[in-house]
Amino acid sequence: MILPVYLYGHPVLRKEAEDVPADYPNISQLIANMFETMYNADGIGLAAPQIGLSIKLLVIDADGVSKDHKECKDFKRVMINPEILEESDDDVTLEEGCLSVPGIHENVSRPTWVRIAYEDENRVRREETFQGFNARVVLHEYDHLAGEIFVDYISPIRKQLNKRKLSNISKGIAKCSYKTKIAGGR
Asked: Among residues 83, 127, 141, 148, which one is catalytic?
């Protein structure tokens, strides 16, 4: 089932997500719905807060950008209750976008690698180190679980230049090819 993507300005995107308990109902169906929603919106990652659920769950399938980022080939993950264990001190700056912030793409500086612990879709605990663009995708989605959005990391001048666009997005004035939901409404 394709779910609406919550847009910038919705309070759920600013709330710190809670752990997913072991007995969370219908988690397999939720994960399938998240992948379907992400694919429908041509995304490469989706965090549960982006569909209105303040829980620590994210899905990633970055294979679609593997032409430009070789490390993304076959990079597909489900992460439940992820936790950053370590990240590099060196950063790289690249352009990012977000399904919850349609039409805005900005340069964001992020660590070049991250080591993270998480549970997979079978609730098996895993620990992995991600590098390059994979690290960026994981960190971008992880931010949603902390109530942060990529535009929080852009320079003050870029924030000012995007102020009107962000205001319009929060009012539902955004061109999207996918279902969306704004604060207090549709």
From this structure: 141
**Residue 141 among the catalytic residues:** yes
Which pLDDT band holds residue 184 (cuts at 50, 70, 90)? Answer: confident
- Count CB-CB contacts under 10 A for residue 102: 19
Question: Beta 5-6 vs 180-181: how paired, if at all?
Answer: parallel
d(C-alpha 71, C-alpha 114), whole Å: 14
Closest CA to 166 of 101, 108, 96: 101
Rounded to two decimals, the pTM is 0.95
Structural domains of the chain ordered from first start: 5-181 (3.90.45.10)
Record the tokens describing residue 98, joined without a space.
């977000």
Tokens of 89: 């001190």
Give the residue-averaged pLDDT of 108-125.
98
Q: Which residues contact 173 (CB under 8 A, 6 or more apart)?
A: none
DSSP state of 7: P
Residue 183's pLDDT is 82
Residue 3 burial class via C-beta count within 10 angstroms: exposed 0-12, middle 13-18, buried 19 and up = buried
3-state percent helix, strand, coil for the chain, nearest multiple of 5: 30, 30, 40
**pLDDT of 59 strictly over 70:** yes
β-pairing verdict for 125-131 and 45-47 = unpaired
Distance of CA 35 to the CA centre of its chain: 12
